[in-house]
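Final report, Chapter 2: Outcomes

The project's central promise was a pipeline that accepts a single protein chain and returns its three-dimensional structure in a standardized token representation, suitable for archiving and comparison. That pipeline is now operational. To close this chapter, we reproduce one record exactly as it appears in the project archive, with the input sequence first and the structure output second.
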Amino acid sequence: MSGPLIKVSPLGEKKENSSDGGLGLEILQIIKESQQQHGLRHGDYQRYRGYCSRRLRRLRKTLGFKMGNRHKFIGKKITAEMLSDSRYLLMVLMEAERAWSYAMQLKQEANTEPRKRFHLLSRLRKAAKHSEKLEKLCESPRVDAKTKLEAQAYTAYLTGMVEFELQEWKRAMEAFNKCKTIYEKLASAFTEEVAVLYRQRVEEISPNIRYCAYNIGDQNAINDLMQMRLTGGGGGMMAEKLEALITQARTKQAATMSEVEWRGRTVPVKIDKARVFLLGLADNEAAVAQASNEDTKEHLYETLMAECRDTIQAVREELKSEAKQRERSSDPESGKVSNLQYLHSYLTYIKLCTLVKRNESMAHTLHGKLKEPAADENKRGPRPQDLIRLYDIILQSLAELSTLQGLEDDHTFQKEVSLKTLVYKAYRCFFIAQSYVLVKKWSEALVLYERVLKYAKEVQSKAKTLNNSLKDLPDVQELIAEVSAEKYSLQAAAILDTGDASEAPSQLQVNDSTPLCNRLDTFCLDPTLVGKKPSLVPFPPEFQPIPCKPLFFDLALNHVAFPPLDEKVEQKGKGGLTGYIKGIFGFGS
């Protein structure tokens, strides 16, 4: 026998001495699996903290490492001489994880209760202290080399988190760099399956390192942070810090911004929130253009529209106070559109244009999926009705654009909006025709295709007078080519559909209005049965003769003479005076 067997638990800790002569503990694997299975997939740190407490209690009970009894607490410390089982190391790891999860829970609550930040720092320091204890225990010759390196990386990570919260950027950066270096070395030393976890940890640490570098004074780090924001790096709380950092950088630059020019009119910008938004508008649009996938692009569009709505709300509050001042003072120029109102129109224009671009991007994606064959028949795929809804929203946004205050007399702007409206009307009409094709309403679809061509030709004729009007719009020429092809396909499908009906035997065709209940024994092709008024039964039903009950009339009774019965009728005797009196007054009746 070469050595004792190695028993590995479901979470990766080795139970006995390994053949290389040391205890082992898969620290990163254990914490990652525990976090994913017990709440951190949904950001529930309280649930994970409860799991750490329960597991710690189970470990202490299993190892007989109890801290006194129910009446008295007796503290015990794990020493290097006690390391006969890797579960002693796991116990210290769970203590560190419990303190760290409590700190992260307090970090979430500190957004509304700032006083909890002090408790947060205390728990983070506690977690770092436990990790240092784990690292010191792993220095024992009983522990293998891999576990020692993982313990050092784990300690460096928690130390960096403490310094990061204390805003000690240089020390935090040194700790994170040490952690990153160890994990990169471990990733290069093991197989691909094991190295994935280490690389993921390195990706999680990278935004923190760049953030520290920026705060130290490296101005180039802001570009890396912006790139991480585009690729979706630094999720969770780090994403909030990235947004706050970008807003802070824009706020510093916004101090030099005093006015903005739009459609030939220069408007002073005195509201700080509007300055910050307008300063970052170009960066946001560039970020959307550089987005790698549709999900990232949609997220950026939503972020941009949320910022725009907040800015519009701030300008609207200023407009209310300006309206009150105008009411008090008799301003001769009260009929003109003020600078603040014009700024409000500009921001509304940005919001509506962003909404149009977002819906157009979604429609483009759905159109591509609509052309692809369905991979799963049971799963509902995109339908033309989905795109019709998107183009309805686009047309509604364009209608709001044409009513913006201050632009009623701008004929060029109104022509541009009307041209865009025609383009999106053509696309909406195209997908309505597609929905009619699916239900085999050929004539309606053909009429709608003709309407699409009419809109497209009108767009081409009007675009000649407006330079660069079709630059940001969908390609109308491509739509014309697609409609022409669809028309030929539609005509062929309509001919085939009518040809199939004409090939049916003439004796099977039903030309009369005989109800279905009267010809159940005969198979007939009756197209009216699937129409709006199928002839199933005759209604109202026809009258039918039925036998009635006979009536007897006694007509002979008037001509019959009955025999006299006087002899058989009893004669009543006379009762005297008493009977006579009773008869008069009715007493005898």
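Archive annotation: Strands lie at 259-262, 265-268.
This record, like all others produced under the grant, will remain available to the consortium after the project formally closes.
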